[in-house]
Automatic annotation (TrEMBL):
Residues 1-12, 98-108 have a biased composition (Low complexity). It comes from Didymosphaeria variabile. Residues 1-47, 98-122 are annotated as: Disordered. This is Uncharacterized protein. It comes from the Eukaryota. Residues 23-33 have a biased composition (Polar residues). The lineage of its organism: Eukaryota, Fungi, Dikarya, Ascomycota, Pezizomycotina.
Length: 122
């Protein structure tokens, strides 16, 4: 027997595909307003220092998440910059190789050009 829903469901987050207007338990709960309680937000009166401390902890957690996002973005930017520099180095090396080949070809033509006109002194 499957743990979550009918055997037709393939995943935990699969939506119901039937078009029948039947009301499920989840639908009846979503229409009535509910108070949600978590471990950090307890009902009843709490000491102001506890509330302030909880807010500071939650703020620090949000700041940590934002710092993690910024660190990830910075690492990605560094990686991209390094890849760009490597590509430029490869391109420059290829251009240098082509320039060297062109220089050697020109030198060879220069030697052949010096031999021209040897009959000019007649």
């Amino acid at each position: 027997m499957p743990l979550f829903g009918s055997p037709r469901n393939r995943s935990l987050f699969n939506r119901r595909r039937s078009s029948s207007p039947s009301i499920t338990k989840a639908q009846t709960h979503s229409t009535s307003p509910q108070k949600r309680h978590s471990l950090l937000h307890k009902s009843g009166s709490e000491d102001a220092s506890i509330v302030a401390a909880r807010e500071r902890v939650m703020s620090a957690e949000a700041a940590e998440r934002e710092a993690d996002r910024a660190l990830f973005a910075a690492k990605a930017a560094v990686r991209e910059a390094r890849e760009h520099v490597k590509a430029l180095e490869r391109e420059a090396a290829e251009q240098a190789r082509l320039a060297k080949a062109k220089q050697q070809a020109a030198r060879g033509l220069g030697k052949r050009g010096k031999a021209l006109g040897r009959h000019d002194h007649i």
